[in-house]
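Minutes, methods subgroup
Present: GH (chair), OT, SY

1. OT presented the first of two proteins processed in the latest run. Sequence and structure tokens recorded below as shown on screen.
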Amino acid sequence: MLKNKKVLIAGLLTFITLAVAVAGINIYIIASQHKKIISRDEASRLTDVDYVVVLGCGIRGDKPTHMLEDRLLEGIAVADLNKDCKLLLTGDNSGVSYNEVAVMKNFCLEKGFDESRIVTDDFGFSTGESIENVNNKFEGNKIIIITQVYHTFRALFIAESLDMDAYAVPSSPRKYSTWLYNNTREPLARVKDFIKYF
């Protein structure tokens, strides 16, 4: 009986420690990055921007998901206000049946965006890989990241860890069916990337 009680207490203390660590990391990432989240108007006043970076987040056939559509629309709008930079589309190109980046590019072209200003990254299989590719492969330093609000903090944290001058314009004009999943998963993803990039 005493042994079972000790095991229970040890398990409870472990759980509390992990919960405090997860909460602490999330608070740190959000608090350290929230000032870099700016409006479209503020983004238009930035100078020497290398890329407006749209992070991929899923397609359905040859169409972007609602979340990705909103990111693309915001990315186009911000890039239109920053004429000297490129629009960098980064996502998962796993093969013929799933080419997120091709769908993203086609969407932008259908909206009338100048193809000569579009750059694509087919190897953005995660947030971290996308930001790393912008920095290493495309030599981007000053960037504006386009993603939903919940995701901006982690993307900015990763960019800061790579010594990039990064800002984010959130694209969240509607509530998504995956809202609960995204906001449940994201705190754990922040912990994962905190461990990797801190």
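2. SY then presented the second protein from the same run.
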Amino acid sequence: MQNDKPVVDGRDLERSITQLLEPRIARAMSGDEPFYVQHGAFERETMLPPPAQPPQYDIAFILKSDEQFMWPIEAKVLETAGTVSEYIKDIHGQFLTCRYAPFLGEGAMLGFLLSGTADDAFRNIAQKTPCELENHPAFSSRSQKLSHHTRSVPLGKAYPTKFRCHHLMLDFPYLKRVSG
């Protein structure tokens, strides 16, 4: 760590940051939770036939008593508060199709904001998704919002139709993406 800022590989910001977050989350946990946290957990329920790889969550909270139940967090680097297309693509293409969080009615999107404000990013997400973002009742002072959606459940599956998405923004104005 330099100047209390984590050393992050700028060539792969998203993976570098999420890899650093997992042990910090684990340290903040009491150990008595009915779940554990894992970086890069695989969702085997929605895996396509081989040789396809299963979907992989950036971070997941996995139920200890039944490890098929994973509460996923999908992270995206937002270069600016307006560059939300990949973020929105994962909401629609992963969560709302039940490819992510098939057994649960919720999950989270985590934005690593390099420039701009969380309020502007939330405004752009709400406009381009489209959805209404509301404050989380327990965390109104945090850069966290909620949205509610209806999912397209695959035929023959009993996955939850209603989906609640948690949206969190973390500011990283000192980080820059580097090439090479």
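Chair's summary of item 2: The beta strands are 35-39, 59-63, 70-78, 106-113, 134-135, 144-150, 162-171.
Next meeting: continue with the remaining queue.
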